[in-house]
Amino acid sequence: MNHQAVSGIFFEESYIVPADQTARSLFSRLPHGRDYAEQLIECLATGYLVAVIESVCIREVQRLTDVDLEVVVGRSIRIDHLGPIPPGSPLRLRGWVERLGDRSVTFRVHAQDAHEVVCEAVVTLVATSRQNIESRITAKVTAMRELSP
């Protein structure tokens, strides 16, 4: 990870909320959410909002890493989902590097629609050895196969 370049990251990104990213849509696909999904609102699910924000932050860091040697993964996300975001809403995401560690970077991100700030988030990512993480995943997959009948 190029620390000097990463420290200067600032992004402003537009995102239009798709109709299939609502709370109702997401929870209807989850086994424990199907029973009450229809009672939920037709607004962007917090889980999708997290994924949108994390994906933009990861993209920015990946541009400054050697993707053959490193992979950028999420360590922590703190999000305040402050307002409803209906499908079709244009969001403006603004983010910047707040803190830089040895292998980590923490972003502060604000999202707003045409009416209000709808989200404030803090996202910490880690650039880790691709080989290391792939071998850890392989070990877990092997262990699962050994345990299954």
Q: Layout of SSEs?
A:
Elements: H1 3-7, E1 10-16, H2 23-28, H3 46-62, E2 70-81, E3 90-100, E4 104-112, E5 117-129, H4 130-147
Antiparallel strand pairs: 1-3, 2-5, 3-4, 4-5
Description:
31% of the residues lie in helices and 35% in strands. It has 149 residues and is an alpha+beta fold. It has a single domain (3-147), classed as Thiol Ester Dehydrase, Chain A (Roll), CATH 3.10.129. It has helices at residues 3-7, 23-28, 46-62, 130-147, and strands at 10-16, 70-81, 90-100, 104-112, 117-129. A five-stranded antiparallel beta sheet has the order 1-3-4-5-2.
List key phrases describing it:
149 residues; Thiol Ester Dehydrase, Chain A; 5 strands; 35% strand
Query: What is the average per-residue confidence, as pLDDT, rounded to a whole number?
Result: 93
Poorly predicted sequence stretches spanning 5 or more consecutive residues: none
Count of helical regions: 4
Rg, nearest Å: 18 Å
Class computed from helices, strands and strand pairing: alpha+beta
What fraction of residues sit in β-strands?
A: 25-35%
Read across the widest sheet, the strand sequence of neighbours is 1-3-4-5-2
- What is the H/E order? HEHHEEEEH
Counting structural domains, the number is 1
By DSSP, the count of extended strands is 5
Distance between the termini: 42 Å
Helix content: 25-40%
How would a crystallographer describe the biggest sheet? 5 strands, antiparallel
CATH topology: Thiol Ester Dehydrase, Chain A
By CATH reckoning, the class would read Alpha Beta
CATH level-four homologous superfamily name: Hotdog Thioesterase
The CATH architecture comes to Roll
Oligomer: single chain
Q: What general outline do the C-alpha atoms trace?
A: flat
